Amino acid sequence: MHRILAAVTIALTCFIGGARAEYVALSSDLTIHYETSGSGATMIVFIPGWTMSTDVFVHQLAHFEGSTDFTALTYDPRGQGRSSSPVEGHTYQQHGRDLAALIDALKLDKVILAGWSYGVTEQLAYLDQFGADKLAGMILIDTGPDVSGASYEEWVWYLSDDSDGYSRWFTEGINEDRQTVIVEFAKWMLEDPSPENIAWVTNIANMTSGTVASVLNATGFYLDYSEDLVALEGNIPLLYVTREEWREVADRWIQANTPSAQAEYLGKHLMFWERPDEFNKILDTYLGQF
Questions:
Q1: What is the 3-state secondary structure (H, E, C) of 116-181?
Q2: CA distance 50 to 212
Q3: Which of 38, 101, 167, 233 is 20 to 30 A from 152, alpha carbon to alpha carbon?
Q4: Which pLDDT score is estimated for 20?
Q5: How confident is the model at residue 18, as a pLDDT?
Q6: Which stretches of the chain are DSSP H helices?
Q7: How far is the C-alpha of 214 from the C-alpha of 192, rounded, in Å?
Q8: pLDDT tens, 165-214?
Q9: How far apart are CA 120 and CA 123, in angstroms?
Q10: What whole-number distance in Å separates Cα of residue 63 and Cα of residue 66?
Q11: Are 239 and 254 in contact (CB under 8 A)?
Q12: Confidence (pLDDT) at 286
């Protein structure tokens, strides 16, 4: 691990739990906060979703603490968590370029990308622009490659005509009625929407401005990386971990397009945080091939 970290200028180093928290400047206006755990040569990069931060992967960082086979890394994308929030650049294509810059700055090679929610869109934006040369594997947590479609039978987040109003709610609503949107989103993500759990999620989401959240959601609406993902079939190991209620539609897409992939279904959107033992067991099975 020290060979990786020695290559960059660290503004601040501290420990959060058992994880090492650091910062790296990728440009004059963008400093990325990231955390690592473990010291293995194989790097797993966990990417949080819309308005979320490294905090959501606390159980995965703990899981790899002391590992000499793998290093877990998670970071806050621009405008989220503890990373800086430039005025410009809040699109998932730019997030993909930021991820490439982070991989280069830390001198990483043959990484396993593990995106969650819009973090999947982020990793696929990287794939679309930079290819798979530096990828050893890819884990997609509760999101497919296409964001919007004509029907929810297509495994998408939004309807293209926004006839249900969800896209508008997450684009306009996050600015007009921020707390309602965040609280309802938190309730939807959780199996256990207790006041404590809702407060934990909303505290993280409130680290991202409404403007940044709105722009990200609006630009993500148009993205479809299906061709990029399908091109990985048979070339690198793929793992999908998807919430139980999406089993039928997700499994249909996976079997039709990337049939060699491992696909698992459990819990709700935050299953890796609420069911860490089950999720980490799935992760270990997948990692057994590396």
A1: ECHHHHHHHHHHHHHCCCCEEEEEEECCCCECEECCHHHCCCEECCCCCCHHHHHHCHHHHCHHHH
A2: 10
A3: 233
A4: 86
A5: 59
A6: 2-5, 58-63, 92-105, 118-130, 166-171, 173-176, 178-189, 195-205, 210-220, 226-230, 247-257, 271-274, 276-287
A7: 26
A8: 999 999 999 999 999 999 999 999 999 999 999 999 999 999 999 999 99
A9: 5
A10: 9
A11: no
A12: 98
Residue ranges of the chain with per-residue pLDDT less than 70 = 1-18
Q: What letter represents residue 236's amino acid? A: I
Q: What is the pLDDT of residue 8?
A: 40
The C-alpha atoms of residue 195 and residue 179 are separated, in whole angstroms, by: 14
Give the per-residue pLDDT at 19.
75
Phi, psi (rounded to 5 degrees) for 44: -110, 120
* Burial label, 133 (beta-carbon count in 10 A; 0-12, 13-18, 19+): exposed
* Tokens (6 digits) for 280: 């980490």
Question: What is the reported pLDDT for 17?
Answer: 52
**How large is the angle between the packed helices 210-220 and 92-105, nearest 10 degrees?**
100
Note the Cα 168 to chain centre separation in Å.
Answer: 22
Residue 284: CB atoms within 10 A of its CB come to 11
Which residues is 180 bridged to in the sheet? none
Distance of CA 165 to the CA centre of its chain: 24
The answer, as to whether pTM is greater than 0.90, is: yes
Q: How far apart are the first and last CA of the chain?
A: 18
Average pLDDT, the chain: 93
Q: What's at 226, amino acid-wise?
A: S
For domain 2-287, the CATH architecture is 3-Layer(aba) Sandwich (3.40)
